[in-house]
Sequence to fold (345 residues):
Amino acid sequence: MLNLAIRAEGLTKRYRAVAALDRLDLEIAPGEVIGYLGPNGAGKTTTIKLLLGLISPSGGRAEIFGADCQRRPAETHRRLAFVAGEANLWPTLTGAETLHLLGRVHGSVDVAYRDELIARFDLDPAKKVRAYSKGNRQKVILIAALMTRAELLLLDEPTSGLDPLMEEAFRLSIREARDRGQTVFLSSHILSEVEALCDRVGILRAGRLAEMGSLAQLRQLSARTVQATFDGPVPDLSRVPGVSSLAVDGRVARCQVRGPVAPLLTVLAGANVTELLSREPSLEELFLAQYGEHGDDQPLTAREVDQAQAARVADNTRADNTRADSTRADNTEIASTQVARHDAG
Fold:
């Protein structure tokens, strides 16, 4: 049986009284491109740190290609590459020297593809890192990850600081990775990016996985927007099954429809409709719907986020004390995820 690229079972991380990640169950097959969405504090980066073995779970477990992320990190790191949203690199090295170093740490580099990526992302490798803008530093770590052709790409806000042209270069690179059978786990705030690239999308809410499925599946769970223009009085649509958020403006009626649209169409058929528009919800609307509902499962309050962040700082400091002396984890998160292989070899 083929190992899943990523498997999480009851994966939990608590910071004192706050659950940054709460009993995450996740299965990602090799070759999938997965979008991972949620606002700040929802648990996206916590999930990735747990997969990388940079922090320890409070409960549950995670595997990458069948290897436990906590017990066998060197084995998992051989098969993945990581891109953080903030590039912390060595300021005195050039871009070329940085790529060479990170390639040596990982141990596998497609040199021809590296050169192609340097041209695609319009990076000047002769410049020192300290002379790079934020966007150019981000290009370095993107190229460093992509040039490895790793089986799994863990991407945490990877296009932070990139301009629209470079975002398109990134999308092309991810499509190439997908076509090669690589697995991509993409955490992003850019919903259009996720919608364009991903096979399935997971939406985190207050540390819990609220939804997971293809865009088509998620749209079936949400309402579609219908707008009808009439050649006379607008009929009463408020009692039609599945209709909500009804708004009438003159002879135009707008509403949301959940479930079958047949009951609404039956009413409209005898009401002299001159124009009928219907559209499925965008990914942005699906995402906002999760955070626009008010139930028991609320997103973290600002105070809870502050408390969790303070606890994360303390927890990460303790974790860094055991790891950073040999790996220099704070210099570059890419190197920290791969250095276990270098030390083991």
Summary: Confidence is low (pLDDT under 50) at residues 293-345. The radius of gyration is 23 Å. The first strand starts at residue 6 and ends at 15.
